[in-house]
Specification:
The chain is α/β, with parallel strands linked by helices. It has helices spanning 2-25, 45-54, 85-89, 97-101, 114-124, 160-171, 194-210, 227-230, 232-242, 295-307, 326-342; strands spanning 56-60, 128-134, 174-179, 217-220, 247-248, 275-279, 311-316, 350-351, 360-365, 368-373, 380-383, 390-395, 402-405, 410-413, 424-430, 451-452, 479-480, 488-507, 512-520, 528-533, 540-559, 564-571. The protein is built from eleven helices and 22 strands.
Length: 574
């Protein structure tokens, strides 16, 4: 320690001498000093090109915890340093710390075959991999010289990270590493010795970017971690020096190169790349008898991400023996079969020319636009007028389509026999590309300013999430309820009694567990029930017998967290 301290002082003295010499000679002044080079903070646009064209990647959460079938990292008992008290206390219900930390002694995935994983990725049409090299539980799935708590200490011993990197590159799949800055196993993390942990973190990232060839993505997951707690600038500087063309996500105390909405489809954003990370089941790591999303939802999730100008990083959790669950693999293959037919509408496209709506999404490439009709709220899809002239149209999914363009609208009509359950794709050939993206009203009943039981926007700077955001017909905005809310309501005034028979609701995440839609014609009368439901999720369309109402209320009775609603739309009979 004495030598380090002396060295530091000596370096400081040298720097002072150089500064004084420059000042005496008049060679430079503070005003003349060049701006610091911060190009390491952002990837070059040319390095982002492959990412925005790929659209589809595989996320893999795997480790010794698969022996328990519980969530990776989060199910480890013990103190979760660095998190709010409410989240730290949740650890008490997890797997006891001593048991969790000893799981690696039994971890022997004898059937792990990186070639088989790659074959599944290729069959799915996936273009890149992001693999969990270390999660919050601190266990390393690679051979690290900085810890014994790694794959080398298991009965398996083989360096899984090395084998995956080699198999992916051989198949032309881009390679990415997930690495968790939080580490609830490491004794120094978020203690008075946190600086020692920072050296450990930087050292392991150096290993991952030095020992495994060209790496394309560094995917951090820094919960509640700030730039100063991770020494992020020096970390980014090192990463770019080791891998100049790498991409870094936005979870390491700095914005990085792209955004990462989690367990929800990102909202339309074409000014900065983004990627939704979503599980194919209900948790990140392998879970016995897990509920796997239907193939239709899997495909539509990918399409909606592309229509919002983003990517989908779709997560699987391999089993303890190293194999990927056959049901998960089967769904991925089904996605690949769909992409084999219609991949031109996803790969290498941009979102637009229309923003996502209650009917679906659109993608575009040059002067070609693809309309992905995922829902038919009415027999005809009426879209905003388009500044380009439509030269021709066809149904890529086979059949007949009628497209009518006027100064007021673009109308799409497809006979019911040719509508596909998953995605009806209409191709429009335009006389020129559309600049900008068009917002199309849904045709919902217009409402005045809605009222709510409580609002997060009552907090400072919360107006962005005011209740009218849920009825503005803009899927990119939302209303958020107050912190701690488990039940609330959103009421709209239609201005006069009208007939309604349908509703469409979209929420952030999967928080709502029980709700009713209620109505009345006069505020002095009791509420009557129009319909009821359980979950909402990315989209819930409801039909009910026609009712006459002026006041309509979305009454949320049960949630897993504070409800936040993107859109609450009401429609009359067709």
């Amino acid at each position: 320690m004495t030598m380090n301290h002396t060295t530091s002082l000596g370096l400081g003295a040298i720097c002072c001498a150089v500064t004084l010499a420059a000042s005496c000679t008049g060679a430079a002044t503070a005003q003349d000093a060049p701006a610091p080079d911060e190009t390491y903070l952002q990837a070059a646009e040319s390095d982002m090109a492959w990412f925005t064209e790929a659209r589809f990647g595989m996320f893999v959460h795997w480790g010794p915890v698969s022996l328990k079938g519980t969530e990776i990292g989060w199910s480890r008992g013990g103190l979760r340093r660095g998190l709010p008290d409410s989240m730290r206390n949740e650890a008490e219900a997890g797997v006891p710390k001593a048991e969790y930390d000893a799981l690696y002694q039994r971890f022997d995935p004898v059937n792990f075959d990186p070639g088989a994983w790659v074959a599944i990725m290729l069959s799915a049409g996936m273009k890149y991999l992001v693999f969990t090299t270390k999660h919050h539980d601190g266990f390393c799935m690679f051979d690290s010289a900085l810890t014994d708590y790694d794959i080398g200490a298991t009965p398996f011993k083989r360096d899984i990270v090395r084998e995956l990197a080699e198999a992916c590159r051989k198949a032309g799949i881009k390679v990415g590493w997930y690495y968790s800055p939080p580490d609830w196993h490491h004794p120094d993390y978020y203690t008075e010795h946190h600086e020692r942990y920072i050296k450990y973190l930087h050292g392991q990232v150096r290993e991952l970017l030095t020992n495994y060839g060209k790496i394309d993505i560094m995917w951090f997951d820094g919960l509640y971690c700030t730039e100063d707690k991770l020494d992020s600038r020096n970390l980014f500087r090192m990463i770019r020096s080791l891998q100049p063309h790498i991409l870094i996500n936005n979870r390491c105390g700095l914005p990085g190169d792209y955004d990462t909405p989690e367990q929800t489809i990102g909202r339309y954003q074409d000014t900065r790349p983004w990627e939704s990370c979503i599980t194919i089941g209900t948790q990140w790591a392998w879970k016995p008898n897990d509920h796997i999303k239907p193939l239709k939802e899997c495909i539509q999730t990918l399409v909606q991400c592309a229509g919002g100008d983003g990517n989908l990083l779709f997560n699987v959790g391999p089993r303890p023996d190293g194999t990927i669950d056959p049901e998960q693999a089967g769904h991925l293959k089904g996605m690949g079969l769909w992409l084999h037919q219609y991949g031109e509408t996803v790969y290498g496209t941009r979102g637009g020319p229309y923003r996502p709506g209650d009917w679906g999404v659109s993608t575009r490439r040059g002067a070609t636009a693809y309309l992905h009709i995922l829902h038919w709220p009415t027999n005809e899809i009426r879209l905003a007028p388009m500044p380009s002239t439509i030269l021709s149209s066809r149904l890529l999914t086979a059949g007949e389509v009628t497209v009518t363009q006027t100064d007021d609208a673009v109308t799409i009509a497809v006979p019911e026999a040719y509508r596909k359950d998953v995605d009806t794709i209409v191709v429009l050939q335009l006389d020129r590309p559309v600049d900008g993206v068009l917002l199309t009203p849904s045709g919902a009943r217009s409402v005045g300013k809605p009222t709510t039981a409580n609002n997060w926007w009552d907090a400072p700077a919360g107006r962005t999430y005011a209740p009218e955001r849920a009825t503005d017909d803009d899927p990119d905005t939302r209303w958020a309820s107050a912190a701690g809310t488990s039940a609330c309501w959103l009421e709209v005034d239609l201005g006069e009694p009208v007939t309604i028979s349908r509703a469409s609701i979209t929420e952030f995440g999967h928080r709502v567990q029980a709700f009713t839609i209620e109505y009345r014609t006069d505020p002095s009368r009791p509420w009557q029930q129009a319909t009821t439901g359980t979950t909402i999720g990315p989209r819930q369309d409801l039909t009910f017998p026609p009712v006459t109402a002026r006041y309509v209320r979305l009454n949320i009775a049960k949630t897993t967290a504070e409800p936040t609603i993107y859109e609450f739309r009401l429609f009359g009979p067709e």
